[in-house]
Each structure stands twice: as C-alpha cells, then as structure tokens.
Design brief:
alpha/beta; Rossmann fold; two-stranded antiparallel sheet; 32% helix; 12% strand; globular
Amino acid sequence: MKRLLLPLCAALLATTAAPAAIAATPTTSNAGSGASTTRYASINRPGPRLSVPTDDLESAVKCTPTVKNAHQEVALFVPPTGIGPEAYAWNWLPAMDKAGYPYCTVTLPNNSVGDIQGSAEYIVNAIRHTHELSGRKIALIGHSQGGVSARFALRFWPDTRAMVADYVGLAGLNHGSSQNDDLYPHGNGPAFNLQLKMTAKFIEATNSGQETFPGISYTSLSTTHDQFVTPQGTTDLRGPAHRVSNISLQDICPADTSDHIAIGTSDPVAYALAMDAITKPGPAKAADIPSSICKQTLMPGVNPSTYETDLAGFNETSTTNIANAPVYADEPALKPYVYAHH
C-alpha cells in the first residue's frame, strides 16, 4: 500500500525532542521511584471521587443524537496529544456518520499536553455518561496518548470496566516509548512526555496488577513505521488471546507505510480492524480483514480532495500546542489514590 508521507512529522518530533529551559511551572518529584508494582492500589479498589467540577466534565462530552438508547455499541473517541476531538472530525467521525454508527467525543484539558491524570477524570466521566445515555456497553477508541489515558481510567476507576465492551488503541503508548527516555533522561520536559517514558511511574502504575480486564475485548494496533512509539511492540498488551489482539498494520499489508499519525487519522487497515473489533464479539482478528484492503489509500471518511489540507491542519494544531506545553523538572507526582496505602 502506498502511503503519502506526512509533512509535519519532522516538525512534531523536533518540538517534542528539544528539552527546553525550565519554565515557571510546578516542579514535582518522581514519586515512588524504584517501588514495586505491589505498592499500587488493588485492581478492584473503588476509584476516587472526581475532583473536576461536574459542569466542566459534562460540557466536555458531545454525542450524536443516536447515542440515546442506542441499538448498537457506541464508540467513545479519546483524542491524542496536542489536539481535541477535531483530530477525528475529518476522518473517523464522517466515516461513523456514513455508517450510521453512534458515537461520542470527549475534550481533554489543555489539549492533552499536561498531567494525564487530569485527562483521566474526563475520560471516566465520559465513559459513565456515554454508557448511561446509550444504555449499552461502549467502545473506547484512542489514538496515541488517548490509548494509554483510557487504560489509566479503567485501571483506577474499576466501575468503568463493566461499562466497556471494547478497547481499541491506535498506536497507544501502553508501555511508554524509549524515545522519551532518551530525550528526557533527567526530566525537564512537558508533563506528558515524562509520563510516557518507558521508565515512568505513570506507565508502571497503569500496568500494575494486570494490563487487561475480563469483560473487555482489547485491540491494540501498531505500525512498524512508528517514529514516536519505540521500540516495536511497546504498544502490545498482555492478556489471554481470546480477549487481546496485538496487530501490526504490516501483518495484513506488508507494504503499508503508515506512520504514527496515519494509523490514527487515515489508514484504511486501522479503520477496518477497529470496525471489526467493535461490530463483532471479541477483539479484532487480522484474518477477518480481506487482502483487498491493501489496495485502498485512505480510510472511509477522509476526503481525498482535502486530505493534504486536513492533515496539515492536524499537524499544525498538535505541533503548536505541544510547543506551548508547560515544562516540568520531573514527572508529575502520582495522585494518592494510585497507591495501596491511600
């Protein structure tokens, strides 16, 4: 599959790669450094009360009218770093509209460039709201940071697990990225970069106890051309095969050149796998996807005539917001509820 290389990826990498001088922002210690995962809360301990004002949480969730008392599983889209639901407005949402598929979106604070723990509260509320409105279990779909922030919500608010049927991660940083470890060995970076190091306490906490939960089907998608999530395989989730699928786009289309941005915005294989996951029992299966998909260039919902403009707008927005992200001296401290002795 021939894929148009993305024009602003290099700029995005340069933005995230340059450790800036410490700004006049909070500096925090790397709480719990070196601790065993046994120090984290048990997997079934009730989650804490949400600290964000209810009005803020509610206004962040937008749903199609068809979500109310839906007749099928509803998708909840969690945005990636540096951008809001508009990340999906020129691809996934038009595709869902065309398919008559109900969905909701959630806007995360500060365009997801701050402490991911703050974003998690919005996701928790969005899960509860979407489930209540639809009367059904829902599907969580998250690109990049959106994949791991959704899992943090499921890990520390266990009531949400019974509300979710499917999780689909589009290059989710489930075990962080070695690139962040290399770029920020001593801190001095945006909060999300420090939390998405492979050695981050946030990552350790998210994966503590167990990575996947019964009742939820997990589909984690990756691409061998990912320039931000390294090494290959850090997206993969651990769990029984009947409940967890870790699939590379190249498992289906070896010539697919989609990178980290394309897997969440335009790749037809990623779209086909996501829809396979949320429209059938269990996680996506590579064998369900016909080889003819490899002849497609763009996923449904993407307008070929405006693709380059839409992609450039996506990259410009995310790059600008990441460039303006506050800089921290250390990874933000984990919240007290994360720990066993809270």
